[in-house]
Amino acid sequence: xxxxxxxxxxxxxxxxxxxxxxxxxxxxxxxxxxxxxxxxxxxxxxxxxxxxxxxxxxxxxxxxxxxxxxxxxxxxxxxxxxxxxxxxxxxxxxxxxxxxxxxxxxxxxxxxxxxxxxxxxxxxxxxxxxxxxxx
Length: 135
Known about the structure:
Number of domains: 1
CATH superfamily: 5'-nuclease
Number of helices: 6
CATH topology: Rossmann fold
CATH class: Alpha Beta
Largest sheet: 5 strands, parallel
């Protein structure tokens, strides 16, 4: 049974903590792949928190996760997502995760405090540290 919508921030943080089994209980958006890889690039290149070898290992794990996790798209829902982004003053990326959580009545898992705050008016929104799961 699907319970969660994972955004890129939660995906990256759950992978860092080795909690990948939980992805079987949720979905994410197709755009999360690019956002997740970009987050690793940022930590490596801009923030210098991880070296290139570590970054490449993270990208390998991300690729494996995205072969397993169910992906959805906002194709055909662009106007609704854009309207939500305008209404809540959030990015279209963030509105996409929020819209899918609202539409499918799922818990939004995000480590983005601003998104969690906005989404909590519509759906349950929690940080990745609060996910109760298989692993």
